[in-house]
Amino acid sequence: MAYEQILYEVQDRIATVTLNRPDRLNAWTPVMEREVRTAMTEATADDAVRVIILTGAGRGFCSGADMSNLNQASQSTPKSSSLTHRVATVRAEAYAAGPVPGGLELPQAFAYRHAYFPTVPKPIIAAINGPAAGVGLIVSLYADMRFASQAAVFTTAFARRGLVAEHGIDWILPRIVGLPNAIDLLLSARKITAEEALQMGLVNKVFPRESFMAEVRAYALELATMVSPRSMRVMKQQLFRAQNLDFGAAVHASIPDVVASLASEDFKEGVAHFVEQRKPNFPGR
User: Where does the chain hold its CATH 3.90.226.10 domain(s)?
Assistant: First the structure.
């Protein structure tokens, strides 16, 4: 389909979703939000896609919510409706979209408007090529991995706009960087470099800006060609499902997955290509 504010391309079993408002550092808009979700749904349904890269056009990843929209919101907050009514409206809007069609079965919370990436049954790599702020940072946190260019800069931004933690960042950020770092990043809203983000565990890898996308694609290609797509799909579901379970329940829940994997075609191919010393050709089943 034709997109207005993103680019979508499939090559070498990798779908690349590019936020495409470079003149605004890819500031987030309702149109962009809808189109990213549509692209993730398209990649989910396409058997030719095994890995998804999310990145930004130009010199930015995503500078956060478009300031023109924020300025309008700050000037037009409704006074007539009650706080209870406004909260109910926001909650209804947040869950309206639901999980990605054909996606992984996860707790209801992962149907939230910015938290649905875990339901996409293929690994999502956020390729953070430049500034990632506010909702732009949040979107990257719900990706499965984050790779940063040396040019990347990160900030939560909310406290410097008179806002608070939103879209579940107060849940996911401490799980990624630890509570002390999450408190620092949220309360100060200070900017951090790619190297500091790496030290915190906010990103998995940092690459030179000159070779950034080539390095990201090389990693994605390894996943797309050398790893069982079935294994990735099931393990992604296991990992996010386990976040809401205690240890014993997580072990118990994994047993049917282990048994099913031993009967899968990907397991047969995984053994065969190793024994025969050749490249794998996983069917994904």
Answer: 6-224
At 41 the three-state DSSP class reads: helix
Q: How far apart are CA 108 and CA 285, in angstroms?
A: 26
Q: Name the fold adopted by 6-224.
A: 2-enoyl-CoA Hydratase; Chain A, domain 1 (3.90.226)
**Over residues 159-186, mean pLDDT:** 97
204, HSE (Cβ side, Cα atoms, 13 Å): 14
Helical H segments across 26-166, by residue range: 30-45, 67-75, 83-95, 135-141
Model confidence pLDDT, tens digit, residues 36-88: 999 999 999 999 999 999 999 999 999 999 977 655 555 555 555 677 877 77
Residue pair 54/43 in contact (Cβ under 8 Å)? The answer is: no
The C-alpha atoms of residue 197 and residue 60 are separated, in whole angstroms, by: 16
Give 225's pLDDT tier (boundaries 50, 70, 90): very high
Tell which residue, 88, 98, 103, has the closest CA to residue 45. 103
Residue 204, burial from CB neighbour count under 10 angstroms (0-12, 13-18, 19+): middle
* pTM recorded for the entire structure: 0.92
Angstrom distances, CA of residue 159 to CA of 5, 19, 62, 90, 182: 28, 25, 18, 20, 13
